[in-house]
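INFO batch 0412 | record 1 of 1 | parsing
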Amino acid sequence: MKLLEELVSIRSAASDESKMAEFIKDYVTSNSSNWKVQPKIVSGNGFQDCVILVFGDPRTAIYAHIDSIGFSTGYDKELIKVGGPRLIDGMQLVGSDSQGEIETELMLIESVDGEISIQYVFDREIDRGTLLTFKPDYRETDEYIQSPYLDNRLGVWNALKVSETLENGAIVFSTYEEHGGNSVGFCANYLLKTFGVRQSLISDITWVTHGVVHGGGVAVSMRDQGLPRRSYLNKIIGLARESGIPFQLEVESAGGSDGGVLQKSDLPIDWCFIGAAEDNVHTPDEKVFKVDIEGMVALYEYLMAKL
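INFO prediction complete | emitting tokens
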């Protein structure tokens, strides 16, 4: 899992994904000679910081967002949320500004009227607008992995592992998912117009709930805030059962992903969210069990060959 640990260490807050995009391109260039099919890399002008890999004759695309939650510095040591991080007093944050590297601490301050403000503790004022992210803290046991940003470095890792055996398909490493969505529309439009790709899988990490548990297999989401087209969803579930790979069905009323952005677009793209479940969501202590990670890779490999 050394690759996952490396992915976790890269700062890639929503709107600032360029370092992650460059890492992915370098990784693919360095390693794809050992893959079953060497993909075409699509990036650059017109794609912002997204990276698309095209293998053979693609019918289905995997979407994995490369951004993370975090904070922006405001005025007077104020912190403003990027996406939806949980607020924990004393949380360690890192970043850099014009004066150098930063390692700071989040502080929650309650006013006399009960309102909570978010500030940083540092020996100087950090440049306005500086992006700060959770300090890397990767931990691994025989049973599980615990780290900041398993959402969605684990989804990115899954896509790169599937790349090793993928013969026909596309992978979209997308941006801005944690802060409103941005890029899947133009990436999907490119794949639709260039290759006729109308099917997608969302490689992301979901939540442990009373209905989705650690060790229950990868979660196939029947719905969250978005609602996949039922005939496509039924096809996915049928193939999952046929595969014999352990999985569990998720039915939630909230939450969103790149799939929701696709659903709100004007493109006829089917989507289904499939991902391992994590505890301690949007904190530095996200936790996923290895058996569910293994099932995630196996099911993606099976589906990409069959869809």
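INFO post-check: Residues 290-306 form the longest helix (17 residues).
INFO record closed
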